Amino acid sequence: MSKNQMMIYLAHGDDAKRKVVAANLELLSHEVGLSTGTPSMLISRCQESPPSVAIVGTGFESDDAFDVLNQLSQQNTCAVIALLESSDIDRSRRLMNDQVMGVLVEPVNESDLRTSIYLARRRFQQTRQMEARIDELQGELDDSHQSTEHGK
């Protein structure tokens, strides 16, 4: 895989839309490692072998796309992009609080995908760096607290 090529997992309840998105991802030279209409398969694969980015569309038979997005965000294993219909925009505001890294509105094209993937990956990396720094500072604080207690 080249430096710019990423492994992308895609889940969408509409087969035709999923094929269009997958084709656009391949035009961008990304590898679509999973293209499914089954959200549970996406969630499982993200746990087993996290991709660079997971893209979640809508239209699933028995699953709410927002629940799937929230589950993936809680896993915190990869950047997550919501691929929504325009009627879902009002509901999308809460996704930013749930660590979803990007939101696209259908229909999408190569340019939309390229930009969203870049921004989602960047935000995911920044979040990871921030979490590592918080852990580091917490460790220093704990060490300092223990040293103070032992000095009494």
Describe the structure.
This protein has about 150 residues and is α/β, with parallel strands linked by helices. It has helices at about 15-25, 40-50, 65-75, 90-95, 110-150, and strands at about 5-10, 30-35, 55, 80-85, 100-105. It has a single domain (about 5-125), classed as Response regulator (Rossmann fold). The chain has five helices and five strands; from the N terminus they run E-H-E-H-E-H-E-H-E-H. Strands 2-1-3-4-5 form a five-stranded parallel β-sheet, with helices on both faces. Strand 3, helix 3 and strand 4 form a beta-alpha-beta unit. The longest helix has about 40 residues, at about 110-150.
In short:
The chain is α/β, with parallel strands linked by helices.
Question: What does the secondary structure layout of this molecule look like, with pairings?
Answer:
Layout: E1 7-11, H1 15-27, E2 31-36, H2 39-48, E3 53-56, H3 65-75, E4 79-84, H4 89-97, E5 102-105, H5 110-150
Parallel strand pairs: 1-2, 1-3, 3-4, 4-5
Helix pairs in contact: 2-3
Number of domains: 1
CATH third-tier fold name: Rossmann fold
Distance between the termini: 57 Å
Give the low-pLDDT segments: none
Amount of helix: 55-70%
Corresponding CATH superfamily:
Response regulator
Number of helices: 5
Number of DSSP strands? 5
Cα gyration radius (Å): 18 Å
Which CATH top level class fits? Alpha Beta
> What is the molecular shape?
elongated
SSE order in H/E notation?
EHEHEHEHEH
- Return the average pLDDT rounded to an integer: 87
